[in-house]
User: What shape does this take?
Amino acid sequence: MAVAAASSPKHKISRSLISPTKPDAMAWPPLSFSVARAARPVACGFLLTFVACTFLFVLSSSSPWLPNLSAASSYRSHFSSFLSRFRRNPSESPPPPPPRLLPGGLAAGEGPAAAPRSGPGADRSGSGAAEGPSGAALASREDGGDADGESPWRKKKKGTEEWVQSVKKCDVYAGRWVRDESYPLYLPGSCPHIDEPFNCFVNGRRDSGYLKYRWQPNDCDIPRLSGRKMLMLLRGKRLVFVGDSLNRNMWESLVCILRNSVEDKSRVFEASGRQEFRAEGSYSFIFQDYNCSVEFFQSPFLVREWETPMANGSKRETLRLDLFEGSSENYKDADILIFNTGHWWTHEKTSKGKDYYQEGSHIYSQLHVKVAFQKALTTWGRWIDTNIDSSKTLVFFRGYSYGHFRGGRWNSGGRCDRETDPFKEETYAFKYPRKMRILEYVMKGMKTPVFYLNITRITGLRKDAHPSIYRKPNLTEEERRSPVQDCSHWCLPGVPDTWNELLYSQILIKEIENGWQENS
Assistant: This one.
């Protein structure tokens, strides 16, 4: 258009009037320069529009370049975070070391810190693992600590220490039986190693209420027995029960609890069978994956049953109050020993004490059973002090277990069937047996520490948990009319499982304290 306009006469006249001295040919360059100046803003606008569109396209979510940009940004972010670990403020304390391991494979604080709490909402159904801090609490500090600056494992260790001290100060035997639907620790009829007299479910007992109780101390908590953790504590060790048939009750309970936690049951086997047990008075189970054994030695009095030759050629059965029981050489190197006696001291021969008790060559024509009991326990205590190294072996004595015969004794019509609930604590008239006071007196005079499992009152409340008429299957018609009832021993699963929970808590405490000493 500029060229057309320049060629018109009108524009020629105008141009000559403005610059009359310059020829027409000289007018073209100025006109061209003017047009370029007019087009420059348009070109700049077009260029800016192109750059803006390109930039928006690159940032678009559909752009192929955006993921790479994000990845690069993320990489820089992670790299900055990684470097920040090494550029920690000098005033900030270094991250805590990892928790140390205790003997038996437990981390410091494992087990007791998880001791289930009583009260509403308390979870007793699992292995006892405590809930850890929430994710928000753990994320509140970069170094793994929580909002108050204390790391989770330090809190767990502190909780462990507090639990240990609370149980050591607490009378765990003062408490109550509380209903707990997560019990028993193993299913009735599931353990093949329960002897017939204790196997109430197999023998026909079908009520299950007596299985749904746990012991709750008044002032502290004891952990639910984890068979797996117990086996870890027993790795490479021998645990031996020595005593009467009530200790056998407890031994079978522990074997069943531990076996229940093992996946491959074929790796739990008898080192000696029932045949040898009846002949030699010993019985043992091996837990092969843990290289440990749980054993029982039968010795109802803890002193030696004896036969003394008489002048007429006959032999008199006596009880040697001055000689410890005869199988002791087989277990004196055990890592954990649990003794008991008391049940057989109530039988006719021992309670009368006539021509039965012997020391040296002397047979007492008459000796009171309590005096004889003290002499026997003194012999036991002397053997412990002479043969046991307390730095290597833990020694326990399990207290007297109550029976609940009514209307007679075991051989005179005594009964305890049709009992389905424990005694209520407020209505139970508890009388501490004189024999257990004698035991406490003897233990005070010993140099070797003995842990006293004082289960007497605990068992006194449980009139509902004996085998009673379910001590054997398939009763005859005559036995049904006048059955001999067992109101001394306990059904399994049942009350002896709680004795083992108390044993477990004491072993756990000892192992934790040993771990602290080794790592201090």
